[in-house]
Amino acid sequence: MADLRIHFAGIQSMNPFWLASAPPTNSGYQVQRAFESGWGGVVWKTLGDPILNVSSRFAAFNYNGQVMAGFNNIELITDRPLEVNLKEIYETKKKFPKHVIVASLMVEPNQEKWHEIVKRVEDVGVDGLELNFGCPHGMAERGMGAASGQVPELVEKQTYWVKEVAQTPVIVKLTPNITDITATAYAAVQGGADAISLINTINSLMGVDLNTWNTIPNVAGKGTHGGYCGPAVKPIALNMVAECARHPDISVPISGIGGISTWKDAAEFMLMGATNIQVCTAVMQHGFSIVEDMIDGMNNYLEEKGLHSVMDLIGQSVPKYTDWGDLDLNYKVVAHINNESCIHCNKCYIACEDASHQCIEMLSDENGENILKVREEDCVGCNLCSIVCPAEGAIDMVEKPSPIPLTWNERQKLIDRFLSNQKMIS
Amino acid sequence: MQSSVTLDDLPLNFQEVKKDLSPKEAVDEANRCLYCYDAPCTKACPTGINIPAFIKKIASENLKGSARVILDANPLGATCARVCPTEELCEGACVLNDISVPVMIGQLQRHATNWAIHHHQPLFKKGNPNGKKVAIIGSGPAGLSGARELARLGYEVTIFEAKEKAGGLNTYGIVPFRLPQEISLWEVEQVKQLGVEILTNTIFGEDIMVNEVMEDYDAVLLAIGMGKVPMLGIPGEELHGVYDAIQLIEEIKDGDITDRFIGKRAAVIGAGNTAIDAATCLKRMGASNVKIVYRRSESEMTAYASEYEFAKQEGVEFRWLTQPTEIIDDGNGNVGKLKCSRTKLGELDHSGRRSVKIIENSDFSMDVDIVVKAIGQTRHKKLIEELGLEHDQGIVKIDPVTHQTSNKKLFAAGDVVFGKGQGDAMVVSAVEQGKKAARAIHRHIQSSL
Hints:
The complex is a heterodimer.
Chain A: E1 6-8, E2 11-13, E3 17-19, H1 28-37, E4 41-47, E5 58-63, E6 66-73, H2 82-95, E7 100-105, H3 111-123, E8 128-132, H4 146-149, H5 152-165, E9 170-173, H6 181-190, E10 195-198, E11 202-204, E12 207-208, E13 215-216, E14 226-229, H7 234-245, E15 254-257, H8 263-271, E16 274-279, H9 281-286, H10 291-305, E17 332-337, H11 347-355, E18 360-364, E19 370-374, H12 384-388, E20 395-400, H13 408-425
Parallel strand pairs in A: 3-4, 3-16, 4-7, 7-8, 8-9, 9-10, 10-15, 15-16
Antiparallel strand pairs in A: 1-2, 5-6, 6-14, 11-14, 12-13, 17-20, 18-19
Helix pairs in contact in A: 1-2, 3-5, 5-6, 8-10
Chain B: H1 10-13, H2 23-32, H3 40-44, H4 51-59, H5 63-73, H6 77-83, H7 90-93, H8 105-119, E1 133-137, H9 141-152, E2 156-160, H10 169-172, H11 181-192, E3 197-199, H12 210-216, E4 219-222, E5 242-244, H13 245-253, E6 265-269, H14 273-284, E7 289-293, H15 305-313, E8 317-319, E9 322-329, E10 335-348, E11 354-358, E12 364-367, E13 370-373, H16 381-386, E14 391-392, E15 395-396, E16 410-412, H17 427-447
Parallel strand pairs in B: 1-2, 1-4, 2-3, 4-16, 5-13, 6-7, 6-13, 7-8
Antiparallel strand pairs in B: 9-10, 10-11, 10-12, 14-15
Helix pairs in contact in B: 2-4, 4-5, 4-8, 5-8, 6-8, 9-11, 9-17, 13-14, 14-15
């Protein structure tokens, strides 16, 4: 058994799998069930001044029969009194002392308010605090959540206020609804954050009902934007995590969130710099038990890779993530079609013909059988044919020997040098 | 299907065996389709239905569009969804056979055409009248398909049908638990809605004179199919209890489900799809034992693999290499026994099948109450000769391109032109022939303008 324990900004967790602050962590009952299922930690659903919720809150994006490829919600932070939540946190922590409970917090951008809530939740024994600067709907209209998370100065200031009184690690949860997430991540670090977590949900309108022309979901015939999450947002989240991870001035641990459903997703986020990961949508779809395969699959993967600890994954792929200008312009791959594995659906052909570089030919072999062949000299190595191919092993992207590597940035430097030499000569 | 069944139980046995897909099954299955380019399934469909297109439309919940794609290429798409040997056609060609299981194309086609059946929305319009008239003899698959195409091209079409109801074998000849009669009649109705006149109970050459038709119309499409099952040519054929498979199925299909087969022992002679249909019908009408008696072997039988499988599941027994030689009277003018000889197979004969030799002194008999003849169908030779058409043993000769018979005004399609030794003609092939003949008629008339 590989060692799945992690150390995250001073918090020890039995595994990297936490539940994100969301409906599954709404109550002591749920959190205790989650711990019994194997989750290493939870971020309790955001505490703050009690709110009122609307009825009809969630909606899903289904794609080609796949239910919940994406998911959105217009639910607000906890609608239960703070005292009730605090009592349940206390009881749960007492019952599960080895499990991590982080309290998610959201109050107005006011120093006293932050001080007060930090003290109250730390009194019941939480392991850390997560500042919710991310929820994009509802609370943002009142200057909280994403509204403050979109302003780097507010992120820094509020983090600072929290750090003035916090005894436990402070995690700042970032909104993706911003041009450059590293700007707010940097502000959080400047404010003294011990860690950052990302991403919160993305502004979204799930759909329009084609019969009623109502929004989906609708509240008495009206809708508002919600927060998008689930498998569809994973690539967006992974990029944002990676951008923060490779940023030289953002040197705090990262908790990765966004569309994580399996151990594979978790491993990818960790390789891209996350120290742990948080899950919500997959649990909303399948329940807490999915953590069993996350633990089992991660363990098997680590053993297969010969790694002793899950911590060995953290950040291994970050150096491989760079600016476009640092990619080798001379590197070349071309598509190769293996006709033995090809099932002749011709999807590669039409994709290349209509959407790429028209370099796949439909031919007949000596027996009159249909075959497909790539005209390598015209192939730009875009991958599209291999992506649309449904038959495993039918299309390989093959590396071609290339001359000395040369990136765009190197090329521009060489040109600049050449031009300045010329100037000197003239 | 116990022999203890009563007449009241029997109708249940004649409901469709295969269930419709549920809407979710259909969408899930539709989503499995890869939407191939230059798709092999479409190429394998005799009518060339754009299969990926209609399946994609099921996935996008555009069922009207889906039904339209199907019925545009195949006016009998609802029937074909049920009776096509899909494992040999579209589904057999599905590329997913190589890496998974093929898409249930037949069932999806049924789902989409069911929408059309239940929603009563016109999917096609008749063409602007061009003042030309075409007569079609026979309202089976070829005739209906030809009529539909001609009506869309603006022709005034009249179909002459000998029977009481239109639809030919689809209405009368395919067992109801594979194809309910109402499906066939719905397809007839769709053709009628395009302005095609169908005169039923009208025998060509009797109720309406041949020369009258030949003179009154600009072209005539002969789609008369085939006739009854021929005589076996053995003693005892006149006995009570000997049936023609086509007539037997026709009666059942038309709702005449009787109790006279309950507990009876039957022998069905022949091993084509009609023989299977008759055998399974007898089982479902309560026969206690049904044997298919065939003078060749399993590998020569012309029934589809799926039909053969179905018959075995229904408990039909098979007696291969067995040639009936006499039907023996039980003493009261009823069938009592079927006397048979063993056979062995020799060289390939002119039809491309192995010849049959009777083994001497191999006589035996089986106790049966019912004998059903299903050894193919006779040709309407008399009418064909009356029309003066060139033919080969009742198979009307046509030009493969123009679909014209030796009489240039008379075109032919369907079983009437379907040759021997090619197995059973499929409904879907007849539909395509009807379509092609219609277009050939159109070209012919246009060119003579």
